[in-house]
Amino acid sequence: MNQFIKRLPFIVMLCCCLHSSFAQHEPRYVDASSLLIVGKAKTTDSVYRRIDSIDRSPMPDAVKRLAQQSAGIAILFETNSTSIRTQWKLDGEVHMSNMTPIGHSGLDLYCLKDGQWQFVSVGRPGTGTQQSQLIVGNMDSSLKQFMLYLPLYNGMSALQIGIDGQATIQKPAKPGINQSRRVVVYGSSVVQGASAGRPGMAYPAILQRRTGMDVINLGFSGSAKMEPELATYLATVPADCYVLDCIPNPSPEQIRERSYPFIKSLREKQPSTPIVIVETIFRQNGLWDRKIGETVRQQNEAIKTTYERLKAEGMKDLYYIQSSQLIGEDHEATIDGIHLTDLGFMRIADAILPVIKKALAAKPKKTH
Amino acid sequence: MNQFIKRLPFIVMLCCCLHSSFAQHEPRYVDASSLLIVGKAKTTDSVYRRIDSIDRSPMPDAVKRLAQQSAGIAILFETNSTSIRTQWKLDGEVHMSNMTPIGHSGLDLYCLKDGQWQFVSVGRPGTGTQQSQLIVGNMDSSLKQFMLYLPLYNGMSALQIGIDGQATIQKPAKPGINQSRRVVVYGSSVVQGASAGRPGMAYPAILQRRTGMDVINLGFSGSAKMEPELATYLATVPADCYVLDCIPNPSPEQIRERSYPFIKSLREKQPSTPIVIVETIFRQNGLWDRKIGETVRQQNEAIKTTYERLKAEGMKDLYYIQSSQLIGEDHEATIDGIHLTDLGFMRIADAILPVIKKALAAKPKKTH
Known about the structure:
The first copy, chain A, is of the alpha/beta class and about 375 residues long.
């Protein structure tokens, strides 16, 4: 007993050290909503949704549902942690034959290195909706800025980011995405991100990393049919440039009827913001299935007619990208004829980026 | 009644016409095993398996299992059908966070057009193991040659191809893949095809289409650790060129121990066949996780040492491709740091193809 009493101060000290060491290594979680959120059209009532419930209410049902998926939203933070963990809660389990689970329900982490965003690692969803994972470990402890992309085809109700117990985490002092410069992309599943391997490979995300501007993903899979409610909403979303990549889903008749009033309405409310119109990529299976091929030809003819009419009427700051310029000529850029793989997304980003740059170069900077 | 009797011949004729028209449009199915099968190392007891049960028996358990998956196997046929349907039976339901269902369990159809293989469409797996689908319709009725790739990460016990009732289907008169010229690729999940969007985008398949040679996929996910049993088997597979892309999975120690005897053994049994050694791609998350990065560096150092030893000993027809040449420098070619997307697969095919061509150009043609 005397021996024990003699050794007590040493034992207490050892316990303290062990506890401190354990606490240092035990991860500490912060709510992602306390960090910087980019890729959002506007502030929303539920933080990881793309469109606010009030803004959603007049929209078609499919858009209402898809607007709650987190495509294009990302969390920016800086930390000196040597590891990054995440806990996230998905709206539901998703099964898509042309998407990876990492793409539709996972996370994608980048780090700013020498002024460039570089891929780090991914969060892989398992079964169920509660997910928890070490994304990366064993890093050095220098202060780094990270960007974490959220799922493309699922919604999230909660997200926590875990760091080393003693590390710091906060909003970046100098964000690697400049939220005062904004490109807003309205379109179909191709914009939403089918079939990117991981969330950061949807083309709006690639454009965001390459330009350092905030690029807003308003891609609605199977939808984006230029309904008047969407024109009304789009005009309220602050932008330095609008990209309209919304030709894949409406029928040729719908494009003939809707595209002219849609663009006119946007132009009236945003008189000097550049608008880039993108033809639909030529569905690769439409080179074999003559019915599909004919529909695609008619879709692009219809939007071209609208573009020419608007130009003839003297509309300024209007740009047009043809189908033939988008995804190369080897027919290998899609997973299923229409949805782009990472190969297709790199190609379409290469095609659209110079047009956006040209459009922006011609305009003075806005203040949002 | 008289009226009916009077009209009977007309009614019979109408029924015949309707029946004939219906029969013409009702699809007719043929067993794919009666057509031309490419991408097989050797003949096997079960037609859609990569390795025969007797050859498999001495192999490690993981390889035994993976060798039953159909990666790299494709069916060649010619038909004048305006539509192509498939019915296929999978071994089981697969869930992989880094693969699309089309990639792991689907089908991928190409057509030979002006001497080039061009993507047509895919077969999408649903739930369950029995799958049935229209792959493409509304084609013209000219005679065309097709290649149908089988699933990358699943096995198949049955496959039927459906054509228009009156159309013809047979083995191609002049196959677009020359089975007398063979490249055999032994490797990891990257060779097997993780994470190609669809089966035809695994890099052995890309090489097969680009060269018109038969390219055999001996990729074994998480395996390919250069066990002696694999060296023994590989030497029995006829080849004009062996590609060894088997560095990602063995530890640096295993590479130091096994790579020299593995390549020596293959060379002894195949004294003049070119061997192309490929370093592992640098795991992109290893640029952040220092432990992973150090392991990859040691893996590549170990295989480089073996290569230099073999060269110093005078081994001929040995080629080496460094990690830095494989997938570009933008860090965007993988889904999760190690597994290539279609973007990565195009890049690695671009890197490996010229080395294979150089290796083959230096050798006289073999007869298999």
